[in-house]
From TrEMBL:
Activator of cell division through the inhibition of FtsZ GTPase activity, therefore promoting FtsZ assembly into bundles of protofilaments necessary for the formation of the division Z ring. It is recruited early at mid-cell but it is not essential for cell division. InterPro entries: Bac_CellDiv_Activator (IPR053712), Cell_div_ZapA-like (IPR007838), Cell_div_ZapA-like_sf (IPR036192). The lineage of its organism: Bacteria, Bacillati, Bacillota, Bacilli, Bacillales. Keywords: Cell cycle, Cell division, Cytoplasm, Septation. This is Cell division protein ZapA. It comes from Sporosarcina ureae. Pfam families: ZapA. One of its GO terms (biological process) is cell division.
Length: 86
C-alpha cells in the first residue's frame, strides 16, 4: 500500500489561523474546520462571558459526547443486523 501524501491546509477557526497537516483532502479539512468554527460560535452565542479557551474545551466535550452517542447507535444497528442474519 502506498503512503498517502501529506498536505498542509490553512484554515480559520474562531478568528485564529491554523495550519493542519495530514493526508485527508483539503476540502475535507476545510469542512471539518468550518464545523468546529460553527460549534464554537454557537457556544459563544449562549455563553458570551466565556473566553476562547473555555469555548474550545466545551466544543471538544460536546463533540466527543456526540461522537460517543453515534458510536453507541452504530453498535446497536450492527447488533440488529447481526440478529436479522441469524
Amino acid at each position: 500500500m502506498a503512503d498517502k501524501k501529506r498536505a498542509r491546509v490553512t484554515v480559520d477557526i474562531y478568528g485564529q489561523t491554523y495550519t493542519v497537516v495530514g493526508t485527508e483532502p483539503s476540502a475535507h479539512v476545510r469542512y471539518v474546520a468550518s464545523l468546529v468554527d460553527e460549534k464554537m460560535r454557537e457556544i459563544n452565542k449562549h455563553n458570551r462571558h466565556l473566553d476562547s479557551k473555555r469555548i474550545a474545551v466545551l466544543t471538544a466535550v460536546n463533540s466527543v459526547h456526540e461522537f460517543l452517542k453515534l458510536q453507541d447507535r452504530v453498535k446497536e444497528l450492527e447488533q440488529e443486523v447481526k440478529n436479522m442474519k441469524g
